[in-house]
């Protein structure tokens, strides 16, 4: 187990974190090239403005895991918050919900982040 703080721990303690965007279609080599430009805390990839399937997300998250960098994933639309639990099972460390304009949308998204205990 690593003694390095997790992304969540770094966010909670108020660290300034810089991320980088990468296409979900990036090969492991291309992702390494992107990450080599700076000391990034996370990599972000997107399904809102590009084609997406679960297999591709799993592959991308696998490359990122090998490179020891967490993935933030932006879902396609606010109406897809019901998929958050499933998407997190595929490898991302976090999910971004686009176009949030109401507190009700936030509440709905949060409800799907947690599993019943």
What does this structure look like?
It contains 5 helices and 4 strands. The protein is of the alpha/beta class and 117 residues long. It has one domain: Phosphoenolpyruvate-binding domains (TIM Barrel), CATH 3.20.20. The chain is globular. The mean pLDDT is 92.
In short:
It contains five helices and four strands. The protein has 117 residues and is an alpha/beta fold.
In CATH, what is the class? Alpha Beta
> What is the first-to-last residue Cα distance?
26 Å
Question: What fraction of residues sit in β-strands?
Answer: 5-15%
* CATH homologous superfamily title: Phosphoenolpyruvate-binding domains
Q: Based on the structure given, which CATH architecture is correct? A: Alpha-Beta Barrel
What's the β-strand tally?
Answer: 4
Give the C-alpha Rg.
14 Å
Structural class: alpha/beta
What percent of the residues sit in helical stretches (DSSP H or I)?
Answer: 25-40%
Elements, N to C (H/E): HEHEHEHEH
Please mark out the parts with pLDDT under 50 across 5 or more consecutive residues, or reply none: none
Biggest sheet strand line-up: 1-2-3-4
Separate helix tally:
5
The major beta sheet can be summarized as: 4 strands, parallel
By CATH, the topology is TIM Barrel
Return the domain count: 1
Give the overall shape: globular
Mean residue pLDDT: 92
